[in-house]
Amino acid sequence: MERHHNSVTKTPLDRVQRRSKSKSYRQSLRSCLGATCLTPALTTRRLNISRRAPKSHNITKVNPEQLALMVKTEWQLSYVTPLYQFRHTQLKSYSRQLSAFIAAEKQQGLAVEVEGSHGSFRVSFSVVQGMSEAADDAETVLIQIHLKRLFSRQDEPAKVVWSGLLTCINGSPDYLRSLPKDFTCLPLLCSSGAEGLTSAVKSWFQQTFDCYFGQLEISHTSLQWMIALWTNCQTESAIQFLKMIWTLPVVPPLKVTYTVNGQDAWELWSSVRKDPQKEGNGEDEDENSIDIEEVMRFMQGLKSHFYRHFRLDLSAGKLDQVSTALGSAKCSGMIKISNSKYMISTLTLLTECALLKMPI
């Protein structure tokens, strides 16, 4: 069952010593993480309660083909622990190694059977120039798996059947600087393609760089942050609409689709923003930051308006998905960025979410 609503009124709203690559270390680390073993330092980490408001980035240094891939693809998110002895200068070698690994897996019947996969796989690693925002961020790496089909024409190009991005955008300086020099932190993996190929890539990385991958879900709070961050972009790039999908805990579970006109969402968001004069903060500081209190007031306004019309309390439910013209995100860890101007802001939040999973 779905209920739709298409407008909202303006609502006044009251590490660590150097580690070896020993087998025992890998097993103990993966065992710990697989059992959700948390150190005291991990349990004290939380999402930032304040962050910079998103601003438009004209990413002119990024290769246009790479940029087009990033904004047209729906990505599955994973987190990855720091990579031991990963070198950006060795990407050609990694391409050959991973190609050989996938070929061996396929020969043993372990690799994925991509539709029409009778042919040879070739892997390419490349640096995505122009993505790094902070001095401590490692350069983003794009991995692509190409399939050259048997009996294809000699001039027929290989088809890209899997893509992955390893990235770190505005990562925590304290955490990144705490890592020994032999570790590279690219905590966020965005992948698109057959699950079997994703598993093969992860297996090779784990064996080669002594790391661990885990599924990165997008929490209820992080989805609410995305709602606020994207709505805040309305004046520069119209979000057109704000769509939320909730699940209410009834039997059977009730799916509720709640759609708000973009301008109406902006007016409500403007009404809950702090007044720099009343708060006694500098105007520039206030305009360039958003705090969790504003996000919560915005969400409460949206939920209150829905309750007045439908007598359904969304506070009792779970936010599963959000979308605007700028992008979409699902709690299962799926993300699509539709506007490159705000890609950096979105990846900054997702990098933060991934770093919360790091063992220290």
Automatic annotation (TrEMBL):
Residues 1-25 are annotated as: Disordered. It holds the Pfam family CENP-L. InterPro entries: CENP-L. Keywords: Centromere, Chromosome, Nucleus. GO terms for cellular component: chromosome, centromeric region; nucleus. It comes from the Eukaryota. Its main location: nucleus. It is found in: Chromosome, Centromere; Nucleus. Belongs to the CENP-L/IML3 family. This is Centromere protein L. It comes from Xyrichtys novacula.
